[in-house]
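Predict structure. Chain length: 353.
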Amino acid sequence: MSVDTMTTFVDIALLGVRADTPVTRRMGAGPSDDGHLVVDGVNAALPVNPDSPYQVRDGHLFRGETDLGLPVTPVRRPRFYDLSTADGVPYEQIARLHGADVLATTVVQTCIRYAVDQRCRFCTIEESLREGSTIAAKTPAQLAEVAEAAVRLDGVTQMVMTTGTTAGPDRGARALVRAVRAVLAAVPGLPIQVQIEPPGDLGVLTDLHQAGATAIGIHVESLDDQVRRRWMPGKGSVPMAEYEAAWDEAVRVFGRNRVSTYLLIGLGEDPDELVAGAGRLIDRGVYPFAVPFRAMKGTLAVREGAQPPAPPLVQDITQRIATLLRTAGMTGAGQRAGCAACGGCSVLPRAGG
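Prediction complete.
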């Protein structure tokens, strides 16, 4: 990929695009709030920004009047969004389309770490619940029903299940065990990624794998303890040693490059330390899914005036991590399911990671 093309992908990841996007993600459990498009054949979750210098027009990406030669297709509204359960819950409130082919759900939409003094500054997991766009807890039967329809009607090829952290020692993982079993009974063979905090009982990782989960995300967001305490005061109280133990056990159970963790670029972590930490994760067999931080509406980060990172910083870190991944023979696609397999929130896939 040329330097200019890579620069464009970094720019649109941060500056967004002017486009009509029928499929969007607003609020929820995660760091991005975007419209979903396919850019040059690959999923892209991009801010929809009326002030962006980039515009989607006539199926191509333009900057001003210059056609940049990249085909762009907004993801169409899926047909399963038109359906509801027998008791009247819209399927869209149970699970949502991410990118062109990923079904995503937050199984438990509440989190024990959502008090203001504990909340992750980039998360709005309970805001989407308060505005009525989702329900508090999705049952295994509901998730199975929606997954079957999404695969049949809209060609979904993978699924992501995350959860707010619960008070039990499993931190929410057991609800995912039941959900995975139910979905795979309805849609055998569907690749599923589960996402959890490090559980108190690491044995639940085996339970998740035996239930049929393909991959697992155990997301730390930053490897710098000072950054963790500032941006994730509740989650940051979980010692890094617990993450390391959970990653190592997950790699033992799921296999190399079937475990991932988010690393957010732009939280103030030293760039060289971030890249070095990504290298250590790769040595463990964990895919470091490096994503530029972009503050979502409704987050504490927006209230506090947080700004996205500078494009050259994102490009530098992304390219260095991609080089480490290529050397190790690891790709996001190798995860088979989940955020890294989709790649839409990151520039890593464009850099060869």
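Summary: Residues 3-351 form a domain with the TIM Barrel fold (CATH 3.20.20.70).
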